[in-house]
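Hi L., both proteins are below.
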Amino acid sequence: MTAVQYDLEEGQPLTIELRDTRWAALLAWLWPGAGHLYQRRYAKGLLFMVCILSTFFFGLAMGRGRVVYASTRPNDFRWQYFCQAGVGLPAFPAILQAAVTRSGSDP
């Protein structure tokens, strides 16, 4: 798959070879920046990985691990988790934590 971008200095088309975009999207959702790394855009991939994951893990540390919590119970509906799920695989432990709390344990 190729994408065409224009070189602003010369006005000539510049062709960039891209890999499978669907696979890149899946990788990007699983781990932020992984889709760019797959597309061989290493600087951008590392930038996204560091920025998104450091923000996510810093927030997780500030909340002592209790800020990523998935629940859809009527009196405890956590709509914020659906926003956190956009981070991808790092938000998955919240689903495990929800399963543990369903059995009566503390989060």
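That was the first. Here is the second:
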Amino acid sequence: MLRQYLPILIFMALAAVLGTALFAIGWVAGPRRPNAEKLSPYECGFEAFEDSRMRFDVRYYLVAIIFIVFDLEIAFFFPWAVSLGATGTFGLLAMLIFALILVVALVYDYRKGALEWD
């Protein structure tokens, strides 16, 4: 039984050794020049806040919604396109409804101003 898993174990061992070696080489040979700017906390393009309960602009959330909408769109369109011959008209109608829902989400984001890069 071990013979069946031996190539996988060898591959995992080589991956672990290579990953550790590359990390160690980077750690040893990498430059270490810390300064105040590199060591300062960074969050969303803003300077660090004194109060962690400060409100964020709604555009951050709208950009996240846009990303999720288009990420889901691509994730569902590829398998649909591959199996279009098997799903037929029902699959086409289901995907059109799905695309319509995505268009509604995109229109919502557009009206909220998430696509404006001010």
